[in-house]
Amino acid sequence: MRLVILGATGGIGRIVVQQAVKAGHEVTAVVRDPSALDVPGADVRRADALDPAELTPIVAGAGAVVSALGVRPPVKGPVSLLSSGATSALKAMEAVGVRRYLMVSAAGAFPEPVDGPLTRYAVKPLLNRFLRHSFDDTRDAETIIRASTVDWTIARPPRLLDKPRTGRYRVGGERGLKGALNISRADVADFLLRSIEDRSTYRRAIVIAR
Predict the structure, then answer these.
(1) pLDDT > 90 fraction of the chain, expressed in percent and rounded
(2) What is the CATH number of domain 2-209?
(3) Peptide bond into 57 cis (omega under 30)
(4) pLDDT score of 209
(5) Whether 139 contacts 103, CB under 8 Å
(6) Where is the NAD(P)-binding domain (predicted)?
(7) How far apart are CA 10 and CA 59, in angstroms?
(8) Exposed, middle or buried: residue 33 (CB in 10 Å: 0-12, 13-18, 19+)?
């Protein structure tokens, strides 16, 4: 399958590109600086992911678009990378009839029914205080995606670790995932790629964790 990867030079995006190439997908990585990504087998395209006019010809013919866009801390003021990226990708996809969209979100930005008292009243409020701007953008992006008509999947990982892929992680249901503390970036990438053709993940926001 031909995949278009946004945020391909980021911590998760780069791994998605690597894993997708290894799995035999035809991978198009969208970057602003092609010199920042060297993955043999990937088609690296220079484009602004926030500009649907630039993105549309790249997305044409893709089986899925995977967004691993993210803001590198510290974030000192309002940002709109994820929300603008979602808007751009959805406009480009609509223009050429591509329907499958997957995005990396953040578990910490959302209260879940299964959250224990410590998580609900201490951990997540603290995270939302220090990551307020990026979490506002994350929530805005999810709102945009949920209002769309595409077959979307939102992955909500907790704290990200730089550890190898295991393929062994828990996947939350509609109520979230109890004790979701961390997961490796490599396992987030694994989940995204496994979910592309998994219809049970369509139009769902899914918490994933070790």
Answers:
(1) 88
(2) 3.40.50.720
(3) no
(4) 97
(5) no
(6) 7-198
(7) 19
(8) exposed
**Two tokens at 125?**
């409020």
Residue 73 has pLDDT above 80, yes or no: no
Beta strands in the chain (DSSP E): 2-6, 26-31, 43-46, 64-67, 100-104, 151-156, 159-161, 170-171, 182-184, 204-209
pTM above 0.90, yes or no: yes
How far is 169 from 195, CA to CA, in rounded Å? Answer: 14
Q: Minimal CA–CA distance to 185: which of 205, 166, 162, 168? A: 162
Residues 133-156: what's their mean pLDDT?
97
Q: Is beta strand 170-171 parallel, antiparallel or unpaired with respect to 204-209?
A: antiparallel
Residue 137: is its pLDDT beyond 90?
yes
Q: What is the pLDDT of residues 154-189, one digit of tens each?
A: 999 999 999 999 999 999 987 899 999 999 999 999
Mean pLDDT computed over 16-37? 97
Position 150, amino acid: V
Domain boundaries, the chain: 2-209
Q: Amino acid letter at 208?
A: I
